[in-house]
Design goal:
mainly alpha, 0% strand, 444 residues, single chain, 80% helix, globular
Length: 444
């Protein structure tokens, strides 16, 4: 048996864990695959909505508004899920810290997948009138609730199973799930846009990615039902040390870690949703770049996100989480100033460079966060604390970014959007400077 397998037979606190197959290398591989596949599927569900919001939801559900206001309305329904995500963190975090990580992850996958698939069946404004956008908002809210419980559980699944000195490596698997989910979401839309004419795409083609969620939920459930509870949490349950109201304990005992952790996530969310959802709408609407071209360039850019995430997450086991996140914030502040000048050239190669560089910077921040945020909190409240910090950052960064960028560009031009991105990076940098390094911490 290899060293990793031997090391995982102990909890991070040094106490013996249950021996057997669950402690072996095969189990670690199964956990890595389960955490990766689950986050990839859930973020696929989340991202197809963002792509649809940028391309078609404004006309399908808000046809009576002006183009700018219809785009803002579509992005507003997009933002609803970010407002719901902290609520999902509280709900799923409560049960994740009291009942266990595994069962909660199954529930979050079901909620997210089914609410996504139902968007694909929802009639547009022309059929159901005002009820169509209202139901769209309701389904988007449920998406947010489901995703609010997903990331924390998947990250903890990896981190709490992993040996102490390999936590960054194993946390890298759920962290690259979002980039693969985004790649799949963009790829499906690109394929449909390539084979369908514009009328067919806007009529029914955009619904296909949502309906695929029915199939993906089944795949995710099959994988997740085969994993075991984490040894670190099992120890808490054996000692009957579970928190009665985890979110209250987080707010009372860890307010600093919660707020600063959320602040550290702002630039990751803001940069991602500016470089993907907003830039897709901006380039196809304002710059006249074809939908197919932008979707193809987004696919290329996503490879940079995957590379940055994996590089930073795995490197954080030796260099430290904090140092790499700070480096990513600094790079993001600089790249925000060149992103839109590159896009405004309308040259595909330079657009790809702008988007790819932005997502690489985002990946350097995002990669280490899979281990960094869980390490900030104790086991009894780790699901609630890490999830809430992660998703509060989403409200401040992801929900606001497309709306703010749309308004800034219409009032002050694209350069102002780049300055907005850089400002978010500076805020995150200041927050992370106030946090400690955690890679040597025991998960107790």
């Amino acid at each position: 048996m290899n060293n990793d397998a031997t090391a995982v037979q102990k909890t991070a606190a040094g106490a013996p864990a249950a021996a057997g197959a669950d402690a072996g290398g095969e189990s670690l591989r199964r956990v890595a695959v389960a955490s990766f596949i689950g986050t990839a599927i859930e973020f696929y569900d989340f991202y197809i909505y963002g792509t649809a919001a940028a391309l078609v939801l404004n006309q399908a559900f808000f046809p009576t508004l002006s183009p700018v206001n219809a785009t803002l309305a579509a992005f507003s329904t997009y933002a609803v899920a970010f407002a719901a995500r902290p609520i999902g963190s509280v709900i799923f975090g409560h049960f994740g810290d009291r009942v266990g990580r595994k069962s909660v992850l199954v529930a979050s996958l079901l909620l997210m997948g089914l609410s996504t698939a139902l968007v694909g069946l929802l009639p547009g404004y022309g059929t159901w009138g005002v009820w169509a956008p209202l139901l769209l908002i309701a389904l988007r809210f449920l998406q947010g609730i489901g995703l609010g419980g997903e990331w924390g559980g998947a990250a903890l699944l990896a981190v709490e199973h992993a040996p102490r000195r390999r936590r960054g490596l194993y946390a890298a698997f759920p962290q690259i799930g979002p980039s693969v989910g985004f790649l799949a979401a963009t790829g499906v839309f690109w394929l449909l846009s390539s084979v369908l004419d514009d009328a067919a795409f806007r009529s029914w083609g955009w619904r296909v990615p949502f309906l695929l969620s029915f199939l993906l939920v089944g795949v995710g459930l099959f994988v997740r039902l085969k994993i075991s509870e984490t040894p670190v949490f099992a120890k808490v349950m054996d000692a009957q040390e579970a928190s009665r109201v985890p979110v209250v304990d987080v707010l009372r005992r860890h307010p600093r870690e919660l707020l600063l952790g959320a602040g550290g996530m702002i630039v990751a969310y803001g940069l991602f949703y500016t470089a993907t959802t907003y830039c897709l709408a901006y380039a196809t609407g304002e710059l006249g770049v074809s939908r197919n071209t932008m979707l193809g360039l987004s696919l290329i850019a996503c490879l940079f996100l995957t590379a940055g995430t994996w590089l930073a997450a795995t490197r954080s086991d030796t260099a430290g989480r904090r140092k790499l996140v700070l480096a990513g914030c600094g790079l993001s502040a600089l790249w925000g100033l060149v992103l839109f000048p590159l896009l405004d050239t309308r040259q595909p190669a330079l657009i790809a460079l702008g988007l790819g560089g932005a997502l690489f910077c985002m990946g350097v921040v995002y990669g280490p966060m899979g281990a960094y945020l869980p390490e900030l909190f104790g086991t009894a409240v780790r699901y609630s604390g890490a999830s809430l910090a992660y998703n509060l950052g989403g409200v401040l960064g992801g929900a606001v970014a497309p709306l703010a960028a749309t308004r800034l560009q219409s009032e002050f031009g694209s350069t102002s959007v780049g300055w907005y991105v850089s400002a978010m990076a500076v805020v995150s940098l200041v927050c992370v400077l106030a946090l400690p390094e955690t890679r040597e911490r025991d998960l107790t």
